[in-house]
Predict the structure.
Amino acid sequence: MKAKLVAVGLVAASLAAPVLAQKKYDPGASDAEIKIGNTNPYSGPASAYGTIGKTIAAYFTMVNEQGGINGRKVRFISYDDGYSPPKTVEMARKLVEQDQVLFLFQTLGTPSNTAIHKYMNMRKVPQMHVATGATKWNDPANFKWTMGWQPNYQDEAKSYVRYLLKEKPNAKIGILYQNDDYGKDYLKGIKDGLGAKAKSMIVAEVSYEVADPTVDSQIVQLQQSGADVFFNITTPKFAAQAIRKAYDIGWKPLHFLNNVSTSVASVLTPAGLEKSTGLISTAYLKDPTDKQWANDPAIEKWRAFMKKYYPDGSLIDNSNVYGYTVATTLHQVLKQAGNDLTRENVMRQAASMKGFKIDTLLPGVTISTGAKDYAPIQSVQLMRFNGKQWERFGQIIDSSM
Amino acid sequence: MTRKQILLIGVLLVIACALPFVASNYRTFQFTLVMVYATALLGLNILTGYNGQISLGHGAFYALGAYCAAVLMDQAGAPYWATIPAAAAVCLVAGFLFGLPALRLEGLYLALATFALGVAMPQLLKYDHFSKWTGGVQGIVIAKPEAPWGLPLNPDQWLYFFTLAVTLVMFLLAWNLLRGRIGRALVAIRDQHIAAEAMGVNNAIYKSLAFGVSAMYTGVAGALSAIAIQYVAPDSFNIFVSIVFVVGIVVGGLASISGALYGALFIQFVPNIADEISKAAPWAIFGIFMIGFVYLMPTGVAGAVRLLLARRRSQ
Amino acid sequence: MRCARRTSATDVDALLHQILAGLATGGIYASLALALVMIYQATHLVNFAQGEMAMFTTYIAWSLVTAGMPYWAAFFITIVFAFVMGVLIERVIIRPVEDAPVLAVVVVFIALLVILNSVAGWIYTYTIKSFPSPFPKDAFVATKYMSPHEMGAIGITLVVLLLLFAFFRFTPLGLAMRAAAQNPDSARLVGIRVGWMLALGWGLAAAIGAVAGMMVAPIVYLDPNMMGGILLYAFAGALLGGIDSPGGAVVGGFAVGVLENVLGAFVIGNELKLPMALVLIIGVLLVRPSGFFGKVHVTRV
């Protein structure tokens, strides 16, 4: 009995240890606050994603109202970089050198993050949970201060390919992709997944620019190529156009849609629900416009959060669930860090999440990181649209395995 | 140049040289960018302000210079300072070659042609078949130069002085060029091109050369920017860069060398101010600033300064 | 682009399909090109904010329709709203810089562009919105190449073209407007109120833009960045056809649409189709500097 008490006492003491531990601060952290920096495209060609920065700001307003993290308020400083790498460099330097933030969080865009990648690692300032699905952020050996968050595009592409090779090994593949590094990363994933069969299976690879008014011509090209499988690597507006046009011209391929554009209300409904039937995609977040989550407590909680703290934000934009979920992740990291708010420790805590669950993630999807694993979310599940909602099927695919 | 003007420039120079030692590295970096933009805007001003040829695509030459520098440093291992004359040479030729067919175009049509150039450049930079050299959509990361000869300067300070030196040379060159025969010929072509031709000014050569020199200036600025930012990617050089350059020369003052500096300050700092004012619609605020400046100073800040000085002199 | 081997029969089919798809997108360019021609005829300037004005007025229409108003009521109210907005913009925002250098006015246009784009994004967010089409989905003329709406939109564009042509050719007001733009001083001498001609021109251009936006939105979906790419193509098309000829601008718009599609599908691939299309257009302009149907301008010394 006494041994048990001692054991319990020791466990309690070790749990309390971080709280009672010596306070250690790096620039940006103090007894009163934690300063977090961010750059987002609030203007320019990618301004649609600026809503993520606003959601994160709203989340930390909520956290502060609820008492902060370990008694400290969060000061979330976000600057517009217009999706222009030179501006990102300037703003990142401002955040690190002038505003003296503890770390950068969810800086958005692959080129933007590439521009500051070396700088952040040289200055040993964490570049946390970057808002891009490029594959290169999971490289703790060379860039120990940079970490991604969302499942990367190449892994997602490979999950489609694996399914395809099982279901339709003699398929003729047509690919529509956005001509930037998001689209090209997916393309690489598809080709790597197909391996030696890439050359023989891919019959058409067609690109489009963000400035193109429509992708109708590209869809016609794909149909003409004789493809019976369609990899649709497009952002929401073009995804809707592609889905509708394919249906209208009578092309009915096995249609894989990338995960960025799966929102029922903002993509599939404009395209036409009957035209979207049969689409296959993956997900890791709950879609607030999907009927199956209409009364889900996590989504209800999210809606209440949006109404109170970000009333201007759209309730049908998946980006706002994304922002909420990634902010929750950081919340946990900072909670774990306790009073040791050095950059080193923040990074360490970010890299020690084991099966952390967030209720806006799909069931079965969790956040796990390790010293050699800087990819927090690596599990996705395939899902098929049945005309009303997305039905998940198959196993949860964990690309860390 | 009057004694007063020389004194003023001297004072400016002293302030410029002292800046990196009193300001933070971040501010030094910002002012390095101001000088880069000033050189770029001077280039555009030579073409559009002095010579009346509109260009909505000067970002293409900016990109060309930047990629010259990046590719030479990344692939040929060239030292950073050698990329400046290389970028200058390449852009001079490219600008001249573009200027030749552009001779036949004027006004709206030249605007479209240059707009096409500005839109085409990022496409070419992204093009798969060139990505071996250009890095494609991924871009090219460049190393930051250190101060040479063991000077006690950190990289930001060294880069600032390097940029300052190049900028001074470029401005001096332009000042010399524009106040002499060539400058007068350019302005004559802008204002009365038929009369100018009748007076013996070879429009074709001057206009094409104007394009070449203008491209050279903006190209040099591009190369400096690549070294300062240490990264080039197609996304850094979209059509908005060209458009912002036009805004810069108008706000700064057309046909004015100091206008390039005012314009550079505007395009560097006003977007940041707009961002502080409104996160919801930062470029709306930037647009309002643009309109405000044009209303209050239709001939640009340089024009307003000139008017003010003229008024004080007449009192 | 890598394509499978095809027989020649499907080659013809492919070409036909791309041409028809090109005419559909060309119709979009043509409709905005008409607005550009209108503003050029009235002011001798190209308003770079025309696309954003069209987009913004389409959002107004969307708000009305979403609030329950029937389509045609919303359509005509939006046109009136656009007209008034155009007049106001000219009187309030453009008038103060009337005498400034041309480039200063261009900067004001650019400012308008970014302001409208930014504000639309702020008010309506960036999620795409469906915009209704007045043309029945199952019209008897529907083919797999072109939807009823696309055909209807081309029809509307042609109607606007005819109206515009008639306005400039046959009405005294149209003549007065052209006179005011070409020679404001002489126009004033014969009693034309130049200021109001400009405002009228802006109003009409905005109204045409609103029609263009409402025809375009069902095809490309309504979002703040809807008109950016279209403006570029419309501008190129208008110059190609002749910026002072409404008919020319429409032909130019269609030509650009078809050219773009054919280049992208068969000639140079999608990445370089835009630069190549522009190079070809500029090539034409080098040979025929006023465009296909534009008037040749003689400059007096």
